Amino acid sequence: MTAVLYVAVGGALGSVARYLMGSALATQAVQWGLRFPVGTFAVNLIGCLFIGLVAGLADKHALIAADARLLLVTGVLGGYTTFSSFGLETVMLLKGGNIGLALAYVLGSVVLGVALVALGWWLTGPAA
Question: Helix, strand, coil proportions of the chain in percent (round to 5)?
Fold first, then answer.
């Protein structure tokens, strides 16, 4: 039950951080006249940097306890962006020498993910 609490608290914090950061950057992008989804892009990249830092500190230097890693990685960063988890899992596959599997994971996640979003959109029928 303690693990669930760590994930829940961290997830709430990460989701709020994603909303605040993404909204602020999206507003700024509009002011700059950009059509690129800067908010989501930046949130995903920031999440990737931080999950790499936390995983590195935990795995290489044993500086982060299991409970803290659960709070930070699964909770905060999972709530902030699951793209960071995707990035970490890809790096772990590459680190393990599974280049083909990593490539399949990346291409499958991106291509199938976009295709399934399009399918879901299409399944909702024509615009009202």
Answer: 85, 0, 15
Q: Which residue has the tokens 């999950």?
A: 51
Q: What is the pLDDT at residue 128?
A: 66
Alpha carbons 19 and 25: distance in angstroms, whole number: 10
pLDDT at 97: 97
Q: Where are the domains of the chain?
A: 1-124
81 belongs to an annotated ligand binding site: yes
Residues 56-80: tens digit of each pLDDT? 888 888 889 999 999 999 999 999 9
pLDDT category of residue 82 using cuts at 50, 70 and 90: confident
Give 5-40 as a DSSP string.
Answer: HHHHHHHHHHHHHHHHHHHHHHHHHHHTT--S-HHH
Query: What SS3 state is found at 13?
Result: helix
Select from 79, 71, 61, 90 the least CA-distant residue to 6: 71
As a whole number of angstroms, the distance between CA 12 and CA 41 comes to: 20
| Residue indicated by tokens 């793209």 | 83
State the amino acid at position 128 in one-letter form.
Answer: A
